[in-house]
Amino acid sequence: MRNASTAALTGNLRHIVCTAATALTVLMAPAAPSASAAPADVPYTSVIKSNSGGAWWRAEPRLDGRKMNYLRNGRAVHMDCWTTGQHVSSSEANYPSNRWFRVQVPEVSGSYYVHSSLVDRQTTVGGC
Q1: Structural domain total, the chain
Q2: Which domain covers residue 18, as residue numbers?
């Protein structure tokens, strides 16, 4: 009886050690770069600056465009290009305009639109 009990304990211990070794191997492996993250070599020199504290990152250049993410003031963005979209009045933006920028955000995939009045430190970009 004692040998069967010892064998069962040894088998359980071997299973625990193998499981722990596998978990440690996974934790110690170098992380693969995220394929969905925005490129690190893109200059993020522009920032969100809004009278209301932030701006919606939208799928289309209009106020009823699908909201992808809320970007708080100070959030760095890269301006890809500009486009003409919905005219936004000064009650909904820092100044009235129909100009929108397609921007990227570090560590987030995609390139979406922010109204031009909500982007500070604007860089020169071409049309989309």
Answers
A1: 2
A2: 1-30
**Beta pairing partners, 98:** none
Strand segments (E) across the chain? 46-48, 54-58, 67-72, 76-88, 97-104, 112-115, 119-120
Q: Are residues 64 and 91 in the same domain?
A: yes
Per-residue pLDDT tens digits for 71-120: 999 999 999 999 999 999 988 888 999 999 999 998 888 899 999 999 99
Joined together, the tokens standing for residue 111 give 């390139």
Tens-digit pLDDT profile for residues 15-45 = 443 433 333 333 333 333 333 445 556 678 9
Task: Give dist(CA 64, CA 123) in Å, integer.
Answer: 26
- Note whether residue 37 is domain-resident: no
CATH of the domain at 63: 2.30.30
